[in-house]
UniProtKB/TrEMBL annotation:
Record family assignment: Belongs to the Fmt family.
Keyword annotations: Protein biosynthesis, Transferase
GO terms for MF: methionyl-tRNA formyltransferase activity
Source species of the chain: Alistipes timonensis JC136
Protein name, UniProt field: Methionyl-tRNA formyltransferase
Main function: Attaches a formyl group to the free amino group of methionyl-tRNA(fMet). The formyl group appears to play a dual role in the initiator identity of N-formylmethionyl-tRNA by promoting its recognition by IF2 and preventing the misappropriation of this tRNA by the elongation apparatus.
Pfam family, one: Formyl_trans_N
Assigned GO CC terms: cytosol
Domain Formyl transferase N-terminal: 7-180
Catalytic reactions of this protein: L-methionyl-tRNA(fMet) + (6R)-10-formyltetrahydrofolate = N-formyl-L-methionyl-tRNA(fMet) + (6S)-5,6,7,8-tetrahydrofolate + H(+)
Residues annotated as domain Formyl transferase C-terminal: 210-312
Residues at which (6S)-5,6,7,8-tetrahydrofolate binds: 113-116
Length: 323
């Protein structure tokens, strides 16, 4: 079967999916339609915001579907009218069976982890938070359970000590693009032997659930290496944060940390204690040493390197970071 003749319906929403869509079109693959989320009001003016995938699809001249409900009869009929042979899903909503089972060759998903590890909404964040040194991308066939379909192929990607979510996101986005096109070629050639994920001891797996604001709060009583990984695993978004306060003040402020180093040391200070020379560094006591922030953003202020922040923050040593 010629892979360029397969009728593909592409489903996705964020930037992560865009390079794969562009690569399919540039490679001459037959993308007959794109499904993405409805436009949503955003910003101060509440103007309608289009998804990154929709913007790219319109630029590429592709038909776009934006269903409110994926089981709605009108959407199912619109999908049937496209006569899809293959569905491709990248960072989209959970699909009902009537949609993922419609293409005769099935529907596959690109996931930003080495499945079965890190199933869930935030695999890139959690891999870094947990101190992993390797991750990757996986293509797998959709079934009734989230991220549990038969694995088609994987590419491994190292996590470097200096990586954060932003840098690793870009690496996996690029690597994933190559995996998507190669997976289409293999499906067309009948060259896939999906590896089922049943019969796996779930206790050996690390999940990747959606991250909420309270999940991003720093616990200064933890070992420093874990705190440093936590900060880079949430940088630049949604960002690790802490409460800072001065003794005697009734109110506290919040601050986001975007980068930090760990210095092992025995210090005898309560966790959350702040020390600074007032010019070049801030350090915060943790269980087994000091966390040395590189970039901070105090609530209501700009994100700044510590050296720049200290130019206007003379009483920093009077603060503590709440455990």
């Amino acid at each position: 079967m010629n892979p360029k003749e397969i009728r593909i319906v592409f489903m996705g929403t964020p930037e992560f999916a865009v390079p794969s869509l562009r690569a399919l079109v540039a490679g001459g693959y037959n993308v007959v339609g794109v499904v993405t989320t409805p436009d949503k009001p955003a910003g101060r003016g509440q103007k309608l915001h289009q998804s990154e995938v929709k913007i790219a699809a319109l630029e590429l001249g592709l038909p776009v579907l934006q269903p409110e409900k994926l089981k709605a009869p009108e959407f199912v009929e619109a999908m049937q009218a496209l006569r899809p042979d293959l569905g491709i899903v990248i960072a989209f909503r959970m699909l009902p069976e009537v949609i993922w089972a419609m293409p005769r060759l099935g529907t596959f998903n690109l996931h930003a982890s080495l499945l079965p590890q890190y199933r869930g909404a935030a695999p890139i964040n959690w891999a870094i938070i947990n101190g992993e040194t390797e991750t990757g991308v996986t293509t797998f066939l959709l079934n009734h359970e989230i991220d549990k379909g038969g694995i088609i192929d994987q590419i491994r990607v190292p996590i470097l000590p200096e990586d954060n979510v932003g840098t690793l996101y870009d690496k996996l986005m690029t690597t994933g693009t190559a995996l998507v096109t190669s997976t289409v070629d293999r499906i067309a050639a009948g060259d896939i032997r999906p590896v089922e994920q049943q019969h796996i001891d779930e206790s050996t797996l690390r999940p990747a659930p959606k991250i909420f604001k309270e999940d991003c709060r720093i616990d200064w009583t933890l070992p420093g290496r874990r705190i440093a990984d936590f900060i880079r695993g949430l940088s630049p978004y949604p960002a690790a944060w802490t409460e800072m306060f001065r003794e005697g003040d009734e109110e506290s402020q919040s601050a986001k940390l975007f980068s930090a180093a760990f210095e092992a040391a025995a210090h005898g200070q309560p966790c959350g204690t702040v020390e600074s020379d007032g010019r070049t560094f801030i350090r915060v006591a943790c269980a087994d040493g000091w966390i040395v922030p590189g970039e901070l953003q105090i609530a209501g202020k700009k994100r700044l390197p510590v050296r720049d922040l200290l130019l206007g923050w003379r009483d920093v040593s009077q603060y503590k970071f709440r455990k």
